[in-house]
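Note to self: keep these together.
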Amino acid sequence: MNAREKFLTTLRDEPGRQVPRVEMGYWASTVRRWFEDGLPVREPVPGDIPGGSAIMANRGISSTSAKEIDGNVGPCFALDDHLTKFPVDYSPRLPVETVEQTETDWLYRDAFGILCQSPLHRQTPPREIDHPVTDRASWSAYRELHRSCPIEQRLPKNWDRLVEFLRQRDFPIRLGGTYGGFLGFPRQIMGLTNYVLTLYDDPGLIHDICDTFLEFLCAYYGRIMQEVTVDCLLIWEDMAGKQGPLVSPAHFREFMAPRYRKLTAFARDMGVDIILVDSDGAVETLIPLFIESGITGMYPFERAAGNDLERIRETYPDFQLLGGVDKRVLFSGVSPSAIDQELAVAERLLSTGRFIPHIDHFVSPDCTWHHFSYYRRELNQIIDQFNERVNG
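Structure:
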């Protein structure tokens, strides 16, 4: 089976399924450290990629992101291509404008209109200083700005060639990604603090933003799916921290669930039956809400936030699980027995179906090349043996 067939048969729990060998990706600083520790250099990580940028462990179908696709770790372990993002853009596509640049910092407005400050000599994410939407008046102006960019202009420039290429692909693709959720988008344009305050102070504004975004997504995704068959729809939220969700169940049911139900129904009408949510943090209490809203699975299940995949599987036997291998067992100084314990959990979960194991986010530079190599070789063997058993 190719990577696409493995992904689909595993999450659908079909007879003859083959579990893929995948990782989500690695931070650029991780790969650079591993080069020093023994990872063969097949494709150097360009120096202009910050250490905090993700090196994705998938095929990549956008020429602008080609240099941030893994060409080193995967070949060492014969990994499959993971779920590849179809290039989408949720911003009003504003030009990036420099406000001020000093010897240490770059102050600029990004494509969403957010005022950001980025250190020039440190590989850290930019700090968001100001957001374009603060009230109904600013949202009204922003909404018109967003609508002024037609859907056709949001399609990749090489559209016809890309459509033909994807018709013959052997790897899975998804629609959806960063900022493409009903908490993710309003938080992006408002900032987290203003967003959560507005839930109480002006709920009608949040409803309007979410309804507008839903209308936009259905039009945008619908246009893409006229010509491209996608394997998965992804709703990106990052809606939880280590202590739990950023919104209450009541807020979820009021502001998010109605749009989830409409979007998941739309996806199914378009032939997409795998609908995942991407969220960091402690997500267990959110799962019943997601299931009520038509979501079929989730990732990456960060273990440091207390997520217990075996407990989740027991409670939700049909929910699709991706990730969930605790990256902390790969840190320097941790005993290999801790890795073995994580692998044993993954092995038990494989037998329950609808599970694709990998590290519970991007692999961080705290993870040593020695520990990662041991973990990945052992997990490959577990997956291969499982695939042989179920197809023997």
